[in-house]
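Hi U.,

Before I forget, here's the chain from the pilot set. I'm dumping it here mostly so it's searchable later in email.
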Amino acid sequence: MKIIDLSIDSTALTSLLTAAKQENIILITADGLEFILAEINNFDREIELTRQNQELMAFLNGRGQQTKTLSAAEVRARLGLTSGE
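Structure:
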């Protein structure tokens, strides 16, 4: 994890951080990447909210039911990669 000191005054960033004190925020970039902005001291609350996300829980439950795994060698073979790449 990288720590960045946010001592530079930015109205937009200050506004986001203030909002993140009340609830966790999903930031979406122009190209569709998503990030979570959450207060670290509020991590228990983040876990609670994550558990309430029915779509995510259904996805994770489905993944948890999968029994077949692939080795790294099998994945490289399926992708047509050699061991040197």
